[in-house]
Each structure stands twice: as structure tokens, then as C-alpha cells.
Amino acid sequence: MSAIKGWEGALRVGDTIANAEGSGSDINDVQSISPSHGNNVEALYEIGSRSPTEVKEGNIDLSMDITLLYTGGTTFSGYAGVGSTGALTKYYVAIYPTGAVAVEPEIRMYGSFNDWSLDMSQDGVLTETVTFVGESIAVGAAFLG
Question: Going from the N-terminus, what domains does the chain have, and what CATH number goes with each?
Fold first, then answer.
């Protein structure tokens, strides 16, 4: 495998795995995606000791920030529930760093979109950013069947 520079991949969103993977379509105008997995590990110390006496695992924190060019649509604001008061829909978000091709790497999260924002700076290009909060994550080879 060769090095990857910039955005060479694909992003798909669906309310089922099949809709995010096999029958899903690539999201256009992606500027950046930053998935993260945090274990919140913390070292515990006793008074007078410089070395930890124990390392405790904390709550797992799964999240993803996605920034896209804003093209006037309501797709991502809708995913985040902007303007609605009901329960948020659960989604699968699939990232394909080298493109949506079978057996290529895939990072898939399941959860809900949380925050949505629109950046309208005076001299910049309009972009929208959404934060996704995950309940689970899978990293491995894509199955696009």
C-alpha cells in the first residue's frame, strides 16, 4: 500500500449497514473527517510516589467531526436534527480512506449526529461541520457486497 495524501477516500452515511456500505453513495464536497477513539485512561498516584500505582480505564469516547463545503442542501443539518424536536435517528457512518472498494480499509461508526454548525466568514468559503457521537466503532476491511 502506498502513502495517502489528502482526501482520496469516500464517506457514506446510512440508517442501516447496507445503506452505508453496499448500496450507499459517496458524499460529495468533503473537506475533512476526524474520527477519534478515546479510552480516557488515567494513572492513579499515591502521595510521595512519582510512579503510578495503578492505571484505570475510563469511559470510551467515540466521536467524529466532518467538515464539508456548504452547497445549500439540508442533508447534514437534517442528520443532526436541526429544526426538529423528536429523537435523533441512529446512523452508520463509513469512511473509506482509499475509496469505497471491497477489501480496502474501512472505518465505520454507529451512533447519532450531535452538533451542526455553518461557517460563513467574510472572505472564506461556506462550510458546514457536524459532530457525530458513536456508540460503536469497527475498523477493518470493507465488505461492499
Answer: 10-41+52-141 (2.30.110.20)
